[in-house]
Amino acid sequence: MSQTIATPPTVRLDSDVIGKPINRTDGPAKVSGAAKYAAEFGVTGPLWYGYIVNSPVAKGKITKIHADEVLAIPGVQQVFSHENVPSFAWFDRSYKDDVAPGGSPFRPLHEPEIMFSLQPVALVVADTFELARYAASVLRIEYEVEKHNTDLESVIDEAYDAPKGKTGFMPPPKPKGDMDKAYQEAPHKIAGEYIHHAQHQNPMEMFATTVDWLGDGKKMKIYDKTQGAPNVQQYLMKIFSLSSDEARVISKFTGGGFGSGLRPQYQVFLAVMAALELEHSVRVVMTRTQMFSFGHRPHTLQKLRIASDDLGHIQALEHKALAETSQFENATETVVNWTGILYNSPNTNFDYQLSKIDVFTPLDMRAPGAATGNFASESAIDELSYKAGKDPLDFRLLNYTYSDPTENKPFTSKRLDDCYHEGAARFGWDQRNPEPRSMRDEKGMLVGWGVAAGCWDASMQKAAAKAVLSADGHLTVSSATNDQGAGTYVIMTQMAAQTLGLPMQQVTFSLGDTNMPAAPVQGGSWTANSVGAAVKDACQEVGKKLLKLAQKMDDSPLAGVDFEDAQFVDGHIRANEDITRSVAIADILAASGEDKIEADGKAGPNPINQLKYSMHSHNAVFVEVKVDEDLGTIHVTRVVNAVAAGRIMNPKTARSQVLGGTVWGLSMAMMEETYLNNELGRYMNHNYAEYHIPVNADIHKIDVIFVEEEDDIASPIGVKGVGEIGMLGVTAAIANAVYHATGKRVRELPLTSDKLL
Amino acid sequence: MSLQFIQEPLDKTAPRVVPAQSVTLNVNGQDRTIQIAPWTSLLDALREYLDLTGTKKGCDHGQCGACTVLVDGKRINSCLALATVYQGKKIQTIEGLGTEDNLSPLQQAFVDHDAFQCGYCTPGQICSAQGLINEGRCKTEDEVREHMSGNLCRCGAYTNILSAVMEVLHDGEAVVDNGVLITVPVASTKASSVE
After folding, report:
1. Is A725 in contact with A454 (CB distance < 8 Å)?
2. Rounded distance, CA A636 to CA A98, Å?
3. Does the pLDDT value for residue A645 go beyond 70?
4. CATH number at residue A485
5. How confident is the model over A109-159, as pLDDT tens digits?
6. Is residue A618 part of a domain?
7. In chain B, is it the N or the C terminus that has fewer CB atoms within a 10 Å radius of its CB?
8. How many independent structural domains does chain A possess?
9. Helix (H, G, I), strand (E, B) or coil at A502
10. Nearest in space to A636 (alpha carbons), one of A703, A702, A727
11. Hey, are the CB atoms on A422 and B182 less than 8 Å from each other?
12. Within this chain, do residues A390 and A431 fall inside the same structural domain, yes or no?
C-alpha cells in the first residue's frame, strides 16, 4: 500500500478548465444574499400570502370547517378546503409527476378524508403573512377520528413484493444456488436484523412557491422550490389544464433538496390553485413542522445472512428488506441489490417488500435505498470478517468482484480496489490492532477504526441544452436543470468554456426555467453526466457552425479541416495537425456579420451500453471513533472517504459533495430519527431542535480522495456523478468502528448513547 | 363508534387583528419606515417588507441560525426578534457586509473555500462568523467549531466553513487541520473493466 501524494488531475493543456478546482460562478450571489430563492421573488402588483393548516389526526374525516369565522376577519381573502376547491383533473395520471411511484398520488384539499397526520386540510389566504398565519391559527375544524395504524412491525404479515414502475427502481436480483444449504454448511456465518426509522430530508430552505399573476389570461410566473422545474410544470399543466406558456416554472436557486424536491410538493399545488381561483399573486411557504408532512426516507427492517468458507470466501449471501409505504402509493427504493453488486457469492437470495401504514408516501432521500441497504450489508460483512478471523479490509479485498454478479456484466470501470488501498494508506490502517476494545487514546477513551465500501449506479437521463454565442463573443448556455448546491452552475460553465475554448468569464450558464430546453430532475447523481453531455453537444454544434463560417473567410487557414480535426483553444479554432493554422473566434464572428450563432444540444443514455455493461461508482470509507464508555458518547474524529466516480469535473465542488455526503452518513449513523408516536400516528420531533442533524462541532477531519477513472462507456463525458456516493459506506464504517472500539454491535440506528450503555 | 376531534385555538380568546403601525428600522446604515403589525418578526420585516431577502428563514424558531443578523455588531436570530423592538438600533444584514461585486473578506473566504453548497444557510453563517470575529473570544479550531454551532448547514459544508472563518480570523495565517483533498490520477488503461 503506497501513499499517494496529491497530484493534479489529468491536464492536457493549460487552458483546460475541466478538472480544475474553480470557484462556483454562483458563489458571489450566494454569499452576498443576492441569490433569489422561491419565496424571495417580487411580483407585479400586490402579493397575498397563503398559510397552510394541517390535520392533527392521522386518519378520519373532516366533518366541519368553520371558515365563516375566519373569513369575517378583515384582510382575509379566502379559506380554501375540500369544501370549495373545484374539481380539477379527474384521473390519477394527471397527478403523476416524472418520478411518482405506482398508486394514486395525493390530491391536496380534494376530499374530507384524512390519510396521514399533518395532512394539509386548508389554505388561508390573506393580505399579509402575519394575518394569514393568525387567521390559520384560529380556524376551527371538526374531525371524525378513525383508528389508524402507523406501526410497521404490526403489518409485517401484510407485506407484498414491491411493484415495478418507478424511475430508477431495480427489483431484487434473482436468487442463485441453494442459499439455505450453503448457509447451513458454511463454517463461518452471521445473521442479523437491522433497523432504521423514518428520516426527513429537511433541506434548509422550506418548500415555497411565489406565483406572479401576470394579469394576461392565466399567465403566471411560478417561482418554486424544486429539484426540477420541468417536472413541476408538467404536473401543473396536467392538473389545471394550463399551457406551458401559462405555467412557466422558475427555480434559479434551490436551498437544498436531498430528494425532497424531486416530486412537486403540495405548496405549489395550493399556491397555483389559489392564484387561479383568486386571479391574484400568492405566496405559500411551508413551516419547518410542515417539512415533516410529506415524503421521508422510509422506516425499513432488514435481515441479512452471510456465510463464508474457511478461507473467508463468501459462500452464502441473503439480504431481505421490508419498507413502509403509504396507503395510497407504492414508494420503492433499490435497497438489497447493492450487496449483490459489491460481493460475489455462489448462493444468494434477495427480497424486498412493502407494507402499508397511515403515513405520507416515503420519498427518495440522498442515496435512496443504497444508504439503507449499505448500512446493513456493510455491517454484516464486517461482522463476518471477525467470525472468519480476517481483517475487515482484507476480507473485503478477498471477496472483491471484477464484474457485476447480479447481472453477469463487466463494469465499465471499477477502481474500488484502489480506493481501498489509497484510503487505507492515508488512514494508516496497517497500524490497527484487530482486537476489539484494544485501542485507547491518551485520555483513556476507547478508539475504534472501521471500514466500509459503497456503490451507486452511474446513470444517465435525457437532457437538452441551448448555446448562443453572441457577436461580442459571449457564450450563453441554458438548460432547465437545477442546482440544489451540487455545483451545476460552475461545472456547466466549465464544460461550455472547455468545449469552445473560451475563458470562463466569457461564458454564462443559466438554469431553472421551463422556457429553457428540458432537463431531468436533479437526482440520482445524473446531472453532471446528463446535462454536461447536452451542454457539450450544444457547444459543439455552435463550434461546427463557427468552423463553417471560418472556412468561408478569404484565404481561410482552416480550409479543408474537418470538425473532428479541429481544436478550440484560447479563443481560437486551430487545426490539430498544425496549430499555426488558426483563426480567432472573434474574427470569425466579425467576418460573418451574424449577430449570434446558436445551436441546440441533447444527450441521453446509450441502450446498447446499458445492456452490455454495469455502470457504477464506488467508494471506500475509513473512520476513527472515540467512545467515552461512561457516558456512551461517540465522537467521529477522522474520516477518509476514497471515491471512484469517473472523471471529476471540478475537484473543489466535487469534494464538497463528498464532504456533505460524509456528514450525511455520520448524521444517519448517529443522529437522525423521526420519532413516530404510534398512539397518535404522528411524527413528534417535527422541528430542528428535536430532529437532530450535525452541527459544526460534530464534524472533524475529513480527507477526500478521488481515484479517477477513465470511462467513456458510462458517459460520453466520462462522468459518473458524486451526489450520492460520498454518503455510502460512512454509516456502516462508523457502526463498525464503534464495534471495534467497544465490542458492541449496534444494528439499530441511530447510534445514540443509550444503545452503548 | 367514532371519536370527534376539534382543532381549535389553544386560547379561545385569541386577540383580534391589531392594526399595522409605523416602524422605523436602521438597516445597513439607512433608516427605513414600514407599516407592520406589532407581532411582525424582524426576519419577516426584512424579507417581506424591506425586500432584504438575503436573510433566510429556515425554521422560524431560533433553532437553525439561517436568520442571523448583526444588531449593534452582535449576532442575533432575527426570527426570535420583534421588529418594533429594534427601532433605534443598528441592524446589519448580509447585504450590508458586501455586495456581489465587492465582497467582504469573509464573503470572499466563503467563496474561496467552497464553504457552502445550496447557499441557503450561508448569509446566516457569514453574519454569525462576523459576530464571532467581533466578539474576539475565539481563536482555535475547536472554539470556532463550538461558537459556529448555532448555525445549521444541511449540505454539510462545516469543514470548509471552519477553514473560511479561520482564514479571516487569523488574517490568512491559520493552518487548519480538517482534511485534505487527494487526487489519484487515471491508471494506465481502463482498469478492471474486462471480465
Report:
1. yes
2. 39
3. yes
4. 3.30.365.10
5. 999 999 999 999 999 999 999 999 999 999 999 999 999 999 999 999 999
6. yes
7. N
8. 2
9. coil
10. A702
11. yes
12. yes
